[in-house]
Amino acid sequence: MSNTNKLKIFNDPIYGFITIPNPLIYDLIQHPYFQRLRRISQMGMSYLVYPGANHTRFHHALGCLHIMQKAVGVLRFKNVQISEAEENALYIAILLHDIGHGPFSHAMEHSIVEDVHHEEISLLFMTKLNKEFDGKLDLAIQIFKGEYHRKFMLQLISSQLDMDRMDYLKRDSFYSGVEEGKINSDRLIQMMNVVDDVLVIEEKGIYSVEKFLMARRLMYWQVYLHKTSLVAELILTKTLKRAKELYQKGVAIECSKPLYFFVENKISFADFNDDVLNEFAKLDDTDIIGAIKNWQYHEDFTLSTLSKIIINRDLLKIKMGEDKFSSEEIQDLIEQFSSENNVSLQEAKYFVFKGKIKNQAYSKVAEPIRILQKDGSLEDVAILSDQLSLKALSKQVTKYFLCYPKQLLKS
Amino acid sequence: MSNTNKLKIFNDPIYGFITIPNPLIYDLIQHPYFQRLRRISQMGMSYLVYPGANHTRFHHALGCLHIMQKAVGVLRFKNVQISEAEENALYIAILLHDIGHGPFSHAMEHSIVEDVHHEEISLLFMTKLNKEFDGKLDLAIQIFKGEYHRKFMLQLISSQLDMDRMDYLKRDSFYSGVEEGKINSDRLIQMMNVVDDVLVIEEKGIYSVEKFLMARRLMYWQVYLHKTSLVAELILTKTLKRAKELYQKGVAIECSKPLYFFVENKISFADFNDDVLNEFAKLDDTDIIGAIKNWQYHEDFTLSTLSKIIINRDLLKIKMGEDKFSSEEIQDLIEQFSSENNVSLQEAKYFVFKGKIKNQAYSKVAEPIRILQKDGSLEDVAILSDQLSLKALSKQVTKYFLCYPKQLLKS
Amino acid sequence: MSNTNKLKIFNDPIYGFITIPNPLIYDLIQHPYFQRLRRISQMGMSYLVYPGANHTRFHHALGCLHIMQKAVGVLRFKNVQISEAEENALYIAILLHDIGHGPFSHAMEHSIVEDVHHEEISLLFMTKLNKEFDGKLDLAIQIFKGEYHRKFMLQLISSQLDMDRMDYLKRDSFYSGVEEGKINSDRLIQMMNVVDDVLVIEEKGIYSVEKFLMARRLMYWQVYLHKTSLVAELILTKTLKRAKELYQKGVAIECSKPLYFFVENKISFADFNDDVLNEFAKLDDTDIIGAIKNWQYHEDFTLSTLSKIIINRDLLKIKMGEDKFSSEEIQDLIEQFSSENNVSLQEAKYFVFKGKIKNQAYSKVAEPIRILQKDGSLEDVAILSDQLSLKALSKQVTKYFLCYPKQLLKS
Amino acid sequence: MSNTNKLKIFNDPIYGFITIPNPLIYDLIQHPYFQRLRRISQMGMSYLVYPGANHTRFHHALGCLHIMQKAVGVLRFKNVQISEAEENALYIAILLHDIGHGPFSHAMEHSIVEDVHHEEISLLFMTKLNKEFDGKLDLAIQIFKGEYHRKFMLQLISSQLDMDRMDYLKRDSFYSGVEEGKINSDRLIQMMNVVDDVLVIEEKGIYSVEKFLMARRLMYWQVYLHKTSLVAELILTKTLKRAKELYQKGVAIECSKPLYFFVENKISFADFNDDVLNEFAKLDDTDIIGAIKNWQYHEDFTLSTLSKIIINRDLLKIKMGEDKFSSEEIQDLIEQFSSENNVSLQEAKYFVFKGKIKNQAYSKVAEPIRILQKDGSLEDVAILSDQLSLKALSKQVTKYFLCYPKQLLKS
């Protein structure tokens, strides 16, 4: 294919059109590692709550690429020097920043693989692609690893106000139909500048930053940690755990070959050699959902029941609150379930369990979002805000939950 | 015209279609008092900053009518009893709640008329229309005055989360193109309920309420009190004041007859008899802008200069800050302007002046926005919010400003 | 679950909120047959061209339910009598009208199952559900089969301007980001009426009907029959065919059990007893995509190559035109492919093939879209249109295509 | 003001942000001639039908500037050479293409001024500004007059698919809330190219062109020539005519000075010297509406009645049809009105009158929209279209109308 044919355009309901800036980017998008992201949902089980939330990590990565192009344009307009090589490295780094995600990452990481974080896998993929592409990803990798001397470039890719967060907030609220999460990425980008190698927001953009942080907080509690999404993800985790447990006990487990590889082997990050990475690259949502559909008919009560619960969206109940649930309360429920269903207490714990979730919209420990004041000085947005709201946003909120079958507690 | 022809539909870029629910509402809309709102801009001088902000009080009133219909539907679905008469009264009251607005109300109220507030004039208009319509507005007026026994109905019309605020935030952000002000009125209305005659928001709507208050705060600081809109309005006020002052000194002032009536007479609320109301009903934006266009050529330096400043959008500079500006600084500028332009110190004060503005997004003194918790109890949203942000929103913020011509300070 | 808990709301980025009108509808949505639609993409392989097009048949069915509620409201407002039982039957019928769709229906119907159309399967599902729900679907089924005496009700569900087409045009253009396909369903519904038991559009809606038909035509050629979507679907069809062929030759084929059932058995519509229907109800996109992922590693060159082509989106080339491609041209390509890849001519035909597609935006043979003129008479929109455009839209357009691997023709 | 402060941004609800590309453009926008466009409505009396249609010629001109920047970007990306001087000239020419519009141009041109077309006045303004700006508008004027050797540049400014039409269709449909008029300007611009100095649309954009022409046709019949807008404009024309007639008979007419100038003098294009241009530059919507408000109280029955009709939106009835109305029918109505209101037949003709309007969505006489086919050849879109719809669009449609007071015909 000639290079001019690689200057392609993707339709995007959010930005209108996304332009591929050069043939190398095109080739990276065409690579099977990247195409695989077409089959990985961005929001995991959330489609069970928000039926529109079927968008993929593929589309999110393209969206990030798009707004990075905007950001480069704005910064250059403001006389921030960005060479063509740097520009391209920024595009590559943002395009690939999430390539290490597997299907239902969170559930996977808490069940089948151990101590594996998608950022690390992203780096492994980048390194592998760098070999295939004769070192053309060198600079992108340097930036991604934080080793490049111009620190603001990393901030565009990974910080509290990066292209990743901007696109996912916009995209997730768009597809889920949750208006409250919509942010004005156009304006935020227009307000960006670089001062002393630090990415800053000009003072008149402070309300947009506040709005961005509020939207982020709202999306966490209303969408990402929506109790139904949460319970669905927890059940998925339990299901995968049960499958692995059964396998380890010698019970036959059917699933696709790439998933079987991870059920069969105990894989943590240290084990990710080329072979493991290649198996990982074969995994996507169809492996997980396909397996669970099949497990509905497995002879193990726990595995089949959990699987049916997911496939038919006949989920466990979940209670959430600000206080811990008492051990007694849970123990009672476990015993009740155990006796009603004639399963061991151990198995009952797959259906009755508690836990906690935390979130903070803005971290004071992480690098701050810096506001460029009119006098030229920089200040953390949380300090500058003319009221307490942003300081409040940096408070970590913890919620406790308890999951159990609907049938219980009725009696 | 037959009554069936009065079941009209208005196009609205925000809601799609606005339906006129019955012939009485149609006749009220057709009344010259109401048609006049087509010629009164909702956002005053803001179009000088946001070129799209040319929407009218007419359209806003229709928008309020539309979402009131939604609210009645949702409340009835939740088994809140609302009779047909009450329903209709709600529509009338919300339709006419702003009918007392004159052109550029704020500027008018600080220059030409005295102690006149648009809510009071709205009531005068309603009373007058009630006579024309044989008492059909009785119940609407009772609700509007807070005299009806079902208090939640007033809350739908005038409270910290009423149809008025919902529509104007949505509409103003839509037309100005300020994405950050957009609120999800659909969801807020879906979350409404009535408990013990109090309008409440169900608990799962708490984030939407927070978002609504944040949006309101943002719209105040970024749009309504935008420094350029503010300075334009202040200059308009000064211009009208100057005209009145000149008239009182015996200088001839040309303008439309209805405006002349208010320049000529000293009118405060107590003077609003039927004749005054009728003159007031003739005023709209064209009277003010038409006069100022004309005054550009007046022989008085102050009046003509101020008028040109507005018409050519060649505005004064404005500095805003959190501290008061010193009297010395201002006095210096006044003297400098006086000497450079060969005008009296008194006249110079039309071009160099200071002041302050205040805003609070949520008032703790006013009736609170109440959240209906899952256990059935009600709580103020500011208390319930799991963080400090809403408490912070109720803090009153004051900003100080100083206005002066561009040419000054350069030297 | 109590019935009040079944009055649920779904978020929808298109309509805002979709309300479930009654507990029976809720229970139908909860049924596994319907939940399965969450895993069936509305637009098949189109996501390979439009990365946002991942919405499901589940969401489309909910969208249809929503606009049917609007339509019932508008018709009642215009004094069309619709009883509560009829209303409910309309909701059930539109909700379930597409429940018979399998994954990638078109490709399935041309490869694995024979003479099976989704409408017929929808009816089988409805009949089955009717038993489970004690006859509560009787009236819906009557309407769906065209057996109810009030014919306009069927027109709301299935005609050239039904709720189905309105929602899918709106939804498909929304998710694919193809602005040109957007239609104003709100206005079309507002313009609906019923005259002599015929669904009509009032005269002033004629431009909206024209726009609707233009949008439909555009969506066909630009989106549904986009050459890349088309080639992807054709390759999918070939892949499934090859799998079945291999099975019939005794070669082992791995795939999920429900898919295996259809590979193994020769199923046409006549065979759809309860057991077959139950197997069919287990099928969704994951079965197809999962199988193809697996078949990438099959020993058969044809099956594995076709599978890789899909998974890595490394598609065949496609040429489209208004004239047939010559048999010689194709024969040459087949021979070239055969010799270059050392496969039989028979196998080469899986990679080099031709065909044709047809579309007409408006059918004159089918029941027309009728316009209610001001004098009360009805007329076909195609006759009434003040120009020829609609007559033109009823012309059937045929295009011919030729598919072949990129590598060919280069030499 | 320093030049960097002139790199301003305008909010636009349609495009998000509109960037001012350089200080000269900024200075032109700041000029009183251009600021005046803030007070001239883009859609004349249409706000009486579409209450959101209050947007201005100022905003439209900025919108054109914005999409011209997009077009220049796309063409350069496709290797069309455009120098910086040419780029800037394109921006100036599109910014000022409509600067010659007066208030309610159409009504003015058919009543008070004679043989004056806004394009010609635009050129007068440009020439005047060119002097003020030391010849910096030379190239823009050359392009605007069609004298520049690169003809495609004029096509960007004035042709059947220019930036003007794209913005006004998009903007007018946006503000009026008429979804059907929305066009995909982004895609149309993406499909632009220049071949042999001709602006072309690449073949795959053909459906977007069709959609654009359909939208244009729809906007004409549904919005611009909506019968209520039409009747309002006709009454406005009659009102202005009556005022001029009365003046000529020696009756005193009150209005603003600039309007008086045109009532007093018989001005046709040949009279537009600098003084006339300066008076013209003082006119805006407030002069017209202000006068009509005042004329409501004029002693002349005809003038005051027409004025009230407009201000209170109590419009004449209008019948439209495809056949001419008979002279007898009209004569009867005129006589009836004359006798009922005790006015002369001559005066009655201000209230009872007929006429015709024509429109064609696409002209075959004007320069065609050319499609760049895959083989490199160019073809008129109307010829290329695979159906007749576009050929049909070029048919001129004529409609006849008859206006008369509501009270008539009732008896």
UniProtKB/TrEMBL annotation, chains A, B, C, D:
Signal peptide: none annotated. One of its GO terms (molecular function) is dGTPase activity. Residues 57-169 form the HD domain. Pfam families: HD (PF01966), HD_assoc_2 (PF19276). PROSITE patterns: HD. SMART domains: HDc (SM00471). One of its GO terms (biological process) is dGTP catabolic process. It comes from the Bacteria. Coiled coil: none annotated. This is HD domain-containing protein. It comes from Flavobacterium amnicola.
